[in-house]
């Protein structure tokens, strides 16, 4: 047996293949501590690049926000011990003023935080998996007011932009628009300083502006915005040239969050569209002639997939489904149906219930009941039936 082990682990080529098949980066670190020879292989840049391609970042959970409670992180159930340990070491409490999430990627999140002292809210960058790095307030970039005088409406979104160099920087997407015109400016934040930025020409829109909740995506050198009922506005980040992509037949932005975008391998993007209790997943890509094409890659009956979590109200009251988040390459999706947030792995059809939104209100409700008990001498049972 010792001779067999030596023949395998003594072969550098076989050892590298074994190291590549370890599940987690932490396992690779432990392997590197075995000997100087293992360290040399485990720290080889070529091996690390292959390891990163074979083991993309793992999904830990999702952030949920409602008008009834501040932003909360909900981990995926039944996490492997390695990932559960990462979550335990993290810090996911951003304060009671934490609200909307602008973007979340590779362990970093941009959150709009409203201070308790009544000061104006600020977009803040957090690294919850590395709490020692602290937080950073993102200052708004300086924008020329000239287009605003013509167009009237003004907004800025902060997104993570992968420049392809291995680092992740923040980009500010500023949109000034009227009902049928738009002007877009993109600026990158590097080392705390906003770059000069790039601006589009005045864009004539084929339809009235209609912004969706899952508004914008920066991916593969393009900015995509769901801002019309039947079109997606696409802007090339380098040239700032624009085009309007018509949605597939039967797909339209009917209400907030019935559409969501995610990046796709190579070029293009993925689109999830929900209508009543059916979801379609599409992929938009460019061919060799630089012509864009839609391809339907999945159709899902949500009532059937989520059968064990469904209740009679879904059918009787016409449940509205909202796309909470769509994973890269449409690998997974988080959906909000009634008061439930549900996770679906697209390939395996594995389903998990992430949370029941009603339960987040309970601590505040109990606090109120305690105050009522102290003031008026009433009990919990006066307010809550046994089933509640």
UniProtKB/TrEMBL annotation:
<dbReference type="Pfam" id="PF23635">
    <property type="entry name" value="Beta-prop_AT5G49610-like"/>
</dbReference>
<protein>
    <recommendedName>
        <fullName>F-box domain-containing protein</fullName>
    </recommendedName>
</protein>
<dbReference type="InterPro" id="IPR056594">
    <property type="entry name" value="AT5G49610-like_b-prop"/>
</dbReference>
<dbReference type="InterPro" id="IPR036047">
    <property type="entry name" value="F-box-like_dom_sf"/>
</dbReference>
<dbReference type="Pfam" id="PF12937">
    <property type="entry name" value="F-box-like"/>
</dbReference>
<feature type="domain" description="F-box protein AT5G49610-like beta-propeller">
    <location>
        <begin position="101"/>
        <end position="357"/>
    </location>
</feature>
<feature type="domain" description="F-box">
    <location>
        <begin position="12"/>
        <end position="51"/>
    </location>
</feature>
<dbReference type="InterPro" id="IPR001810">
    <property type="entry name" value="F-box_dom"/>
</dbReference>
